[in-house]
Amino acid sequence: MKRIVLFLLTNAAVLLVLAVVLHLVFALFGVDLSQAVGENRDFYVQILVASLAFGMVGSLISLLMSKSMAKASVRAKTITGNEGEAEAWLVRTVEDLARRANLKTPEVAIYQGPANAFATGAFRNSALVAVSDGIMKQMTREELKAVLGHEMSHVANGDMVTMCLLQGILNTFVIFVSRVAAGLLSQPRRDGRRGNRALYYPVYYLCQTLLSFLASIIAMWFSRHREYAADAGSAKLLGTPGPMIAALRRLGNLQPGVLPDSLKAFGISGKKTSLFATHPSLEDRIEALQKYTPF
Asked: What is the pLDDT of residue 1?
């Protein structure tokens, strides 16, 4: 429930910021926003519907194809536990964590590469958890179990779906506002001056660039927030934050493997933090876990 409220508040904040920016920009250019929108309400509804389709469809398709795309991008191979002792331990551990999280066991995969792990999938009970052979070699089993608990918490929290919806809504806002702004700013002014239709595409692409920049800041802020929640989820699943703290400290001495752009938000990262970072810094995550209290 807390995550749903946070999601709604985030989108309300987006709407508020965009409304303020639009009124300021249109006032600067002498455009009466309420009058212009009121006279063309049906047209703007059509633009909104089209923007929603373009903004959401791509995100939803990516989500539905996330498992197959993720495995193909890192060449991950699904395991059953019969391949060897290490694989058997990995599958048993994921099965145990899934039971604790009240989830069906996700598909488990291994890929070759430096230390990293990620979870993805469109549905909580049909997810994928993948780890690199590098992380299996460089972490103790207690530390790796904590990392797996972190990934299973992402699955249990529905983070993949939440990020997809947020990105889709942000995409919709960017497309819709850019088109509306370009249309209004190229229309005749209320002071009687003629509009300049040649402004439409320059304004459209400028707005899209600037709004996409702002949208990415919002998306990355939300991504960093859910990392704290996944760390806490791992501590809850294991009954103590100790192993996750140890895993994060271990990561501080490793060079995490680079994942494809579509998976960066779901893998290991965060030695440093910034407005555009998908993860908080390791120090901030450790500090948050040190304050963790069971609930």
From this structure: 46
Angle between helices 242-252 and 200-238 (to 10 degrees): 130
Q: What is the pLDDT of residues 121-146, one digit of tens each?
A: 988 899 999 999 999 999 999 999 99
Give the integer Cα–Cα distance in Å for 99 and 58: 33
Contact 195, 187 (CB under 8 A): yes
For every residue of 53-73, DSSP letters joined together read: HHHHHHHHHHHHTHHHHHHHH
Q: How distant is the alpha carbon of residue 9 from its chain centre?
A: 16
Nearest Cα to Cα of residue 247 among 132, 129, 109, 149 = 149
Smallest CA-to-CA distance from 245 within 279, 211, 291 is with: 291
**123 three-class SS:** strand
* Chain centre distance of CA 249: 24
Q: Is 260 helix (H, G, I), strand (E, B) or coil?
A: coil
- Is the separation of the CB atoms in 200 and 178 below 8 Å? no
In the block, tokens 């998976």 appear at 263
**CA distance linking residue 114 with residue 259, whole number of Å:** 10
* CA–CA dist 287, 295 (Å, integer): 18
Q: What percent of the chain has pLDDT over 90?
A: 36
pTM for this one? 0.77
Cα 95 off chain centre by: 25
| Catalytic status, residue 142 | no
pLDDT digits (tens, 9 = 90+) for 188-215: 555 455 556 777 888 888 888 988 888 8
**Any residues with CB less than 8 A from the CB of 37 and at least 6 apart, and which?**
44, 180
Instruction: Express each pLDDT in 15-55 by its tens digit.
Output: 555 556 655 655 655 555 555 555 556 666 777 788 878 87
Q: Provide the token pair at 216.
A: 């990415």
Whose tokens are 């455009």? That residue is: 31
Q: Which of 85, 107, 142, 151 is catalytic?
A: 151
